[in-house]
Specification:
The termini are far apart. The strands form two sheets. This protein has a four-stranded antiparallel β-sheet with strand order 1-2-6-5, with no helix packed on it. A four-stranded antiparallel β-sheet has the order 4-3-7-8. It has a single domain, classed as Immunoglobulins (Immunoglobulin-like). It is elongated. It has three helices and eight strands; from the N terminus they run αααββββββββ. By secondary structure, it is an alpha+beta fold. This is Nitrogen fixation protein FixH. Pfam families: FixH. It comes from Bradyrhizobium centrolobii.
Length: 148
């Protein structure tokens, strides 16, 4: 009986340990070393983005079918709509990177970019918006949103 008791306890502990490691690895990035090397470039890109003084407004709305529609409106420092940019969006789960969703945005009008995501679960998400011009990233935004 004593051997069976400890066998059950050890078996349950091993099972719970495997499940805990598989569901939440505890890392934000795959390689912290590589992320550290790109830190200076990210600071420079953020300073350049701030100097442009663009006005980028994003709105995400959850639809009745469980999907979500993302709209981004881009204006330059003078308030004029900007076209010809390539925007992309991501909905990232703060607790589980496996649930992340990419949202492709296409230009729906002058300075207005829209995209749809199918079957977005309710709850907290990080909305990440990236803008490119001539193959270079010129805009990056990360905001926490709650979808009901």
């Amino acid at each position: 009986m004593l051997v069976a008791f400890f066998g059950v306890v050890i078996g349950v502990n091993v099972t719970m340990m495997k499940l805990a490691i598989a569901t939440l690895p505890g890392t934000d990035v795959d390689s912290p070393y590589a992320a550290g090397l790109t830190y200076d470039r990210e600071i420079s890109a953020a300073q350049q983005q701030a100097a442009r003084k663009w006005q980028i407004n994003a709105h995400i709305e959850r639809r009745a079918d469980g999907g979500a529609t993302l709209q981004v409106e881009a204006r330059d420092a003078a308030g004029q709509p900007m076209s010809g940019l390539k925007f992309g969006g991501r909905l990232e789960r703060p607790t589980d990177k496996r649930a992340d969703l990419a949202v492709g945005l296409s230009e729906a009008g002058i300075g207005i970019y829209r995209g749809d995501a199918a079957s977005v679960a309710p709850g907290q998400w990080d909305l990440v918006i990236e803008g490119e011009a001539r193959g270079m990233r010129v805009f990056l935004s990360r905001n926490r949103v709650i979808l009901h």
